[in-house]
Amino acid sequence: MERGKMAEAESLETAAEHERILREIESTDTACIGPTLRSVYDGEEHGRFMEKLETRIRNHDREIEKMCNFHYQGFVDSITELLKVRGEAQKLKNQVTDTNRKLQHEGKELVIAMEELKQCRLQQRNISATVDKLMLCLPVLEMYSKLRDQMKTKRHYPALKTLEHLEHTYLPQVSHYRFCKVMVDNIPKLREEIKDVSMSDLKDFLESIRKHSDKIGETAMKQAQQQRNLDNIILQQPRIGSKRKFKKDAYTIFDTEIESTSPKSEQDSGILDVEDEEDDEEIPGAQDLVDFSPVYRCLHIYSVLGARETFENYYRKQRRKQARLVLQPPSNMHETLDGYRKYFNQIVGFFVVEDHILHTTQGLVNRAYIDELWEMALSKTIAALRTHSSYCSDPNLVLDLKNLIVLFADTLQVYGFPVNQLFDMLLEIRDQYSETLLKKWAGIFRNILDSDNYSPIPVTSEEMYKKVVGQFPFQDTELEKQPFPKKFPFSEFVPKVYNQIKEFIYACLKFSEDLHLSSTEVDDMIRKSTNLLLTRTLSNSLQNVIKRKNIGLTELVQIIINTTHLEKSCKYLEEFITNITNVLPETVHTTKLYGTTTFKDARHAAEEEIYTNLNQKIDQFLQLADYDWMTGDLGNKASDYLVDLIAFLRSTFAVFTHLPGKVAQTACMSACKHLATSLMQLLLEAEVRQLTLGALQQFNLDVRECEQFARSGPVPGFQEDTLQLAFIDLRQLLDLFIQWDWSTYLADYGQPNCKYLRVNPVTALTLLEKISREMKDTSRKNNMFAQFRKNERDKQKLIDTVAKQLRGLVSSHHS
């Protein structure tokens, strides 16, 4: 029973499932019915489902049949009306066909016209498109044609601008045309061509600027000189901005129009043709001579091409090479001023160009580059000037060189270049200039001293007197009162030397001009140079004259007088320097003139030379002495040579009237002492081995003549018998032998008040031995006279005794 219930339950479930599947089949889309059918086949009740499906299909068929039966009459009516409509439709079709045939026939011409219109519209559209394309291509072609024209006329920078427009603006619009591709391929070649041609123009410019640097520098230096002259003229007038006027002129040379349409401006390589305009009142600006457009064009071209750094490096490298060439001086530069001028002109021209490039371009050259070049130029220029100026022996050339260096420095200083080292170097050249001046003035002084007659200057009129006084500061009231003709105490070399010293001071002053030195520095420089002139040059010249072999006593006396007056004039030279430098001598650190010392030294040398000369003259007269030392005759007058000598001394000392008293007295005393010494040497000469008392008497007469000369006072100022003391040694010696006063001599020897205090035992012994030899020789010759032998023998014994005592004195003196 349970089994039956279970079967009944399963049957109900299966029926419900089949019902559900059938509903799904009825309601589900055909595409999705597969899973539903699969569930049927997967189950075990397939047959029963099919039965139910058949039952469901029959039910639906019955419903369809019922529905069709219900709507059948309406369907028949519709079919009937449709058949009626088919007839009417056929009529309409025929009418439409007829109408279409008529329309086709009537519209055939219209279609032909429309076809023609269509072709015309197509052609018109093509033409319009062609015109548009041509209008798009024409600017490209025009720009390219313009580019070729600019290249042909060498207007490279405009050509480069045109090339840029062509490449970036026009060609992209027509890039699909073949001719555009040809143009695009040709653009790099055109750029290289422009680059090469512009570089060639730059090279031409650099070559021209190198050749014409001296002309540019000459013009700049002329401008500087003109401006300096103008400043000197209006020194006391206020001026605004005039200090660098010519630099301003230099920077307003011209504004080069880079894109100028003038072929001439494009082809110009650097230097404009400017004739010499020496006669023109206005000197053209230094950079008016230069067309810098090649540099500007090349710079712009390389900047546009992205190769500015390459261009800058090339330009700087080439200019450095040119700078080294410019700074190399010619080997013979020192021979003429033109050599120095051309050298300076080239340097100035070089830096004027670089300075203009610095201020008119942005970055082509910079201040560091200019400063580096200037440092190199400054060191090489100073080295060259040191070397070449050392060869200059002409002070005028050195002075002109200094002025040229100052102008050179002032010119470059206006352009902003530091020139302090040049002025420092000028101080070195100043020392050289002083040396050349000293050499020149050495010759001048030598000529003055050689041509002088060493006689007082005679004047016969007031005009001549004033002329001499105007040349040399001399005041003498007594001389002024004397009638004409009269004489100045000094010779012509005094005013000449004085004026030449002033000329030397003027020459030193000329060098100090424009060196930017203070008055104190100028004064110090002049005083030091003048001291060198006095202490070295003039002193040497005077010493050479004084030491000259053929110099006479008259000339020496005149030199002493001249140097005395020149010494007095030193204060006027001090005043002269003070007047031209406006520096008071009382100022601290002011150098004093050493002229007084110079002239004192010269005077002392002349005095010594007078003493020496007098002694030489005395020696010359003494060489004429011819004593017969063996004579027995007693003379009654002085020797002739000595009389002549005394006459010479008297005439010589008469010339000493203008000498200072001490000089004349010293000269006279020196002469007397030398004469006394020479006479003593003559008496004691070793060659004279024997002498007689008669010869001694003659010698005594000569000494008495000398003493008479001393007593006569040849030179005023001696006290009583001071001059006679020069002969005291001779007098006491001769008195001892002539009076034969040996007992007194030997008894009083060594006492301060003895009669023969000046007689030396050695001298007395020497002379006694000479007399003794003569007496012995005479006794041998006269031994035939027996009556004389005893007296001779006694005297000889006395001589021997005295000689023995004298030897004892000599021995005790030495011990």
TrEMBL record:
InterPro entries: EXOC6/Sec15, EXOC6/Sec15_C, EXOC6/Sec15_C_dom1, EXOC6_Sec15_N, EXOC6PINT-1/Sec15/Tip20_C_dom2. Residues 52-221 form the Exocyst complex component EXOC6/Sec15 N-terminal domain. Keywords: Coiled coil, Exocytosis, Transport. This is Exocyst complex component. One of its GO terms (biological process) is Golgi to plasma membrane transport. It comes from the Eukaryota. It holds the Pfam family EXOC6_Sec15_N. The gene is EXOC6B. It comes from Camelus ferus. GO terms for cellular component: exocyst; plasma membrane. Residues 421-770 form the Exocyst complex subunit EXOC6/Sec15 C-terminal domain. Residues 82-109 form a coiled coil. Component of the exocyst complex involved in the docking of exocytic vesicles with fusion sites on the plasma membrane. Belongs to the SEC15 family.
